[in-house]
Amino acid sequence: MTASNxxxxxxxxxxxxxxxxxxxxxxxxxxxxxxxxxxxxxLTIHAGEHPIYGIMQRSRAVTAQSDYYRLQFRxxxxxxxxxxxxxxxxxxxxxxxxxxxxxxxxxxxxxxxxGPKNGVQCSPGLEGTGLDTYLFGNAIAWAKGVCPDFAxxxxxxxxxxxxxxxxxxxxxxxxxxxxxxxxxxxxxRNALYFKDKVSKLLGVWNKEAIREFGGEEMLQMLAGQDxxxxxxxxxxxxxxxxxxxxxxxxxxxxxxxxxxTGVLILAALIGVWAVL
Length: 276
What we know:
Blueprint: H1 3-10, H2 28-34, E1 36-45, E2 52-62, E3 66-79, E4 84-86, E5 100-106, E6 111-115, H3 131-146, E7 151-152, E8 155-158, H4 164-175, E9 180-183, E10 190-194, E11 210-213, H5 215-275
Region (Disordered): 1-29
Transmembrane segments: 256-275
Keywords: Membrane, Transmembrane, Transmembrane helix
């Protein structure tokens, strides 16, 4: 008896194969603990009157289910042109809350989640520098290169009693990367940012304000500092030689004056004796 005949006789269609449920996404906390540093880059942040220098670290964790990519920044010093002012506190260390952005790729569901969950936040001394846009833009650019066709898990932001200015800046921050942005309540305390595909995001930042300081640039700067130091040392040597020459000339002049004074005194004494 064929399968079709058996179906007709029983009056029932064959049961569809049972779908295997997708595993839940791995948590960013467990992936962060597995992340291995990929390298560090010196960043120069030109925000305000004095540039800020710091270290940006990239790290990654790859499992059978997930691909996790994280960027973290810690400030080193601010330069006022004549001296270096070391960064302190949360500005100066790799932090679990401030100055970081991450991406979690979940392969079974083909979705991407951006973090931190409540948005990229800068430490107090780095607010308004554009660092948050740099970190978020780099995270998006990486995701576009790895999984452009994956869907994006919506992100929920809780702003609480934020000012109208903060709400406007938050909206603009996500809109600048091509996210759609919607308030979830009349008081505008909670917002959702979302997009259907990773490839539709932008991944941009102000490349004039924040620049990666490459190895060649570092060598050029060190070479320039050495040349400036050598030129300064040469001028110092010339000044010291001139001072030594002047000192010798003064000493010679002083000795000549003493001799002349002695001769004059002797001549005067001889004259006195001759009169007597």
